[in-house]
Amino acid sequence: MNISLANILFLLSILLLAIIPRNTKRFKVVFWIIFIINFAIRCYLISGSEQKSLQIDKLKKADEAKTQKIFELENKITATNKLAEPPSLLLLSKDIEKIEKGYVVQLAFKKTKDKPLGQLNFIVRLPQQGNAKILNFWPPVGESPAFESGEGSKRILNNGKIAQLIYTILGSGNPVVEIVVSEPTPLQFEGNYGISPFVINVE
Known about the structure:
About 40% of the residues lie in helices and about 35% in strands. By secondary structure, it is of the alpha+beta class. The strands form two sheets. Strands 3, 5, 6, 7, 9 and 10 form a six-stranded antiparallel β-sheet that branches. The chain has a four-stranded antiparallel β-sheet with strand order 1-2-8-4, with no helix packed on it. Helix 1 packs antiparallel against helix 2 (about 25-85).
């Protein structure tokens, strides 16, 4: 039953009262009976509507609470995944020095997390055009933390145009490397632990 049905019943009641002669006991009795019935019906409908509204509010609040819990769980998962990710390396500083043989480029990196690094794999490239060559590629003595290397850790290939350095830092230090080139040249550096290729103008 809804409000429109109650209105229909109210109109039918008025028609019924119109049929019964006024100023009679029957009219008064029927009038009060119809009034009480209509009043009871409207109270029932209003009460039912309020209960439905309360139920809807409860459902909305429950959904909001579930949504909030889902967001909190997603944030916890994201934070856990970030903690589980390996550290990345960021370029902390670069220094270029002119020497008798050419130029020394020193690059210092910083870890994003205080965790030991695994094997480092760095690559240097020079343009194929030009006479510049890579003469050396190695961690500087006294500035690099202790490290472990082996046969084939350093490779200079393609007539000095490409060099690769593979080694492992002992402990939790930050890597520092030196590249020696024969003359001014653009130098491209890249590596693992999130080091995307970047170019340094050596001059």
